[in-house]
TrEMBL record:
Protein name per UniProt: dTDP-4-dehydrorhamnose reductase
Signal peptide (residue range): none
The protein's annotated pathway: Carbohydrate biosynthesis; dTDP-L-rhamnose biosynthesis
InterPro entries (UniProt xref): dTDP_dehydrorham_reduct (IPR005913), NAD(P)-bd_dom_sf (IPR036291), RmlD-like-bd (IPR029903)
Role according to the record: Catalyzes the reduction of dTDP-6-deoxy-L-lyxo-4-hexulose to yield dTDP-L-rhamnose.
Example of a GO MF term: dTDP-4-dehydrorhamnose reductase activity
Ribonucleoprotein is among the record's keywords: no
Keywords associated with the record: NADP, Oxidoreductase
Lineage: Bacteria, Bacillati, Actinomycetota, Actinomycetes, Kitasatosporales
Length: 303
């Protein structure tokens, strides 16, 4: 029997990969709604969209971190109140909800990976807005809601660090990259696969409700990610120069340490995501990244 899935935020970096992943599942009947088709801040529209679906994967989000610092109410309307509308609609209809959240709910002051149950304390407006959404899911869907925190997400379908880096490589001889922020670069397609697997496990009753950390295994810095991206793309990693975060002041504070633990995947009978550099190796074979790398290799960047 086919299972109806709903993917919100379906035109975004992650949403498009979730749609592609579910399209390969013969048992899934998938509806993908982008922001133009579904405004999750509209409760009536959310109720109508959720009706008839068994699993909802929420990829809709305000993702402009610095913009949230200037417009926290607007960010919270999407990341907090909008998620509450989704959770309430799922509670009414009996649908399962997989909600994508962020490492930014943590302060980033530790030096050991944050387990799923670690105390939260966001250091910026974006993190506070996402924490409001998490709390709505856990409050309204204690038995059928799953929060999946991710971090340092990159992929083929939208602006992200890896694509920006390769684009700049064609124009600049050297690039300065922050070396004092630590995290887990995560390929959107790998996370999409894990979300699909988690949804199927939830339907089967083998994945407990609660919080999961959907980040790559291992850890690095933005500087380390940049060097490895260059190396794998046939570019000279010595063109990457390390700098401190103070070189690039931003409106929103960034956590210095965004490494997450992955213990709850074992409870669901699922392995954590692969190592970050293994994910990157595979991701860079995508046509979108390969084209950027080819342009960079044949360009004469300015010094």
């Amino acid at each position: 029997m086919s299972t109806p899935w709903l993917v919100t935020g379906a035109r975004g970096l992650l949403g498009r990969d979730v749609l592609a992943e579910l399209a390969a599942d013969p048992d899934a009947v998938v509806t993908g709604l982008g922001r133009e088709q579904l405004d999750i801040t509209d409760p009536a529209a959310v109720r109508a969209a959720v009706t008839g679906h068994r699993v909802v994967v929420n990829c809709a989000a305000w993702t402009d971190v610095d913009g949230a610092e200037r417009s926290e109410a607007a960010a919270t309307a999407v990341n907090g109140t909008g998620v509450r509308h989704l959770a309430a609609a799922c509670a009414d209809s009996g649908a399962l909800l997989l909600h994508v959240s962020t490492d930014y709910v943590f302060p980033g002051a530790d030096r050991l990976p944050y387990p799923e149950g670690a105390p939260t304390r966001p250091v910026n407006a974006y993190g506070r807005s996402k924490l409001a959404g998490e709390r709505a899911v856990l409050e309204l869907l204690p038995d059928t809601g799953r929060v999946v925190r991710t971090a340092w997400l990159y992929g083929a379908h939208g602006p992200n660090f890896v694509a920006t880096l390769l684009g700049l490589a064609a124009r600049r001889a050297t690039l300065e990259v922050v070396a004092d922020q630590h995290g887990q670069p995560t390929w959107a397609r790998a996370l999409a696969r894990r979300l699909a697997a988690l949804g199927r496990a939830a339907l089967a009753g083998t994945a407990p409700a609660g919080i999961y950390h959907g980040t790559a295994a291992g850890r690095t810095t933005w500087y380390g990610l940049a060097r490895e991206t260059f190396r794998l793309s046939g570019l000279d990693p010595e063109r990457i120069r390390p700098v401190g975060s103070d070189k690039f002041p931003r409106p929103a504070a960034r956590p210095a340490f965004s490494v997450l633990g992955h213990g709850n995947w074992l409870r669901a009978g699922l392995a954590p995501l692969p190592l970050w550099d293994d994910q990157l190796t595979t991701a860079l074979t995508a046509p979108e990244f390969a084209a950027l790398a080819a342009t960079a290799r044949t360009s004469t960047p300015r010094t």
